[in-house]
Design goal:
By secondary structure, this protein is an all-beta fold. The chain has strands spanning 3-7, 10-12, 18-25, 31-39, 46-53, 61-65, 73-78, 83-88, 97-105, 112-113, 117-121.
């Protein structure tokens, strides 16, 4: 069974930084995409950033970012360890949300989701 374990959330002041991490285990398939969604109170879940590797990409890897986080957030992967990190800099109060890690592969039962980690940006 695929398990995703997230860490790194917490309370930070505006302008501060946090680093989220997610480790995936138990997948019988090679993980193609790892990334992060977030959901703020009263809002729909939205993609923050993801990273896809493998033959489906042109260059061997593709990353996507929400416009609202471009230039502030950076996603990185350690494919050998099936981990993904989200470095979040210059955080704003509107970044406050529960952040969910997810993975996609050829597994038809996917995608798989982590339990979520709360990020609060406040004075």
């Amino acid at each position: 069974q695929v398990q995703l374990v997230e860490s790194g959330g917490g309370l930070v002041q505006p302008g501060g930084s946090l680093r989220l991490s997610c480790a995936a285990s138990g997948s019988a398939f090679s993980i193609l995409t790892m990334g992060w969604y977030r959901q703020a109170p009263g809002k729909q879940r939205e993609l923050v950033a993801d990273s896809t590797t493998g033959s489906t990409t042109i260059t061997g890897s593709d990353t996507n970012y929400a416009d609202s986080v471009k230039g502030r957030f950076t996603i990185s992967r350690d494919n050998g360890e099936n981990t993904v990190h989200l470095q979040m800099n210059s955080l704003k109060p509107e970044d406050t949300a529960v952040y969910y890690c997810y993975t996609k592969s050829a597994d038809p039962r996917g995608p798989y989701w982590g339990q979520g980690t709360l990020v609060t940006v406040s004075e």
